[in-house]
Amino acid sequence: MTSRIAQWTLDVADSGKMAAFSSAALGYRIEHGGEGPHLWPPDDAPPETPTVWLQPTHESKRGKNRSHPDLYVLDGGDVEAEVERLIALGATRADVGQTGDEGFVVMADPEGNEFCLLYRKNAWG
User: InterPro entries of this UniProt entry (predicted)?
Assistant: First the structure.
């Protein structure tokens, strides 16, 4: 028996702002209810695609995240164009000590939570 990732939960200060960013970045739909917005993958996503829950918190982010999502551009799209699109949505480039030879671009969402944009779906294979 094994486990699979069902949902990625992120603590956020401004759940409305972060829901709008995450929905636009990922193409997920937003459902409000409970303690914070829940984002659901598009209907054409594989059934095992994780959902996202934005859990409201009053605590501020401190330091580099110990875990983060790795994203990839669908259908082998243009990574640099996607970086620019994400920046237009409110993301920034982030420096966490990378050398420049990695198979990914490190970015941060509007609240400073790091994520990577991979040059291919599996940057290590």
Answer: Glyas_Bleomycin-R_OHBP_Dase, Glyoxalase_6, VOC_core
pTM of the model: 0.88
The CATH number for 68-124, chosen from 3.10.180.10, 3.40.109.10, 2.60.220.30, 1.25.40.390, is 3.10.180.10
Reported as a single tens digit per residue, the pLDDT across 30-43 is: 999 888 899 999 99
Smallest CA-to-CA distance from 52 within 12, 82, 89 is with 12
Residues of the chain with pLDDT under 50: none
19 contacts 55 by C-beta, under 8 angstroms: no
Distance CA(19)–CA(38), nearest Å, equals 8
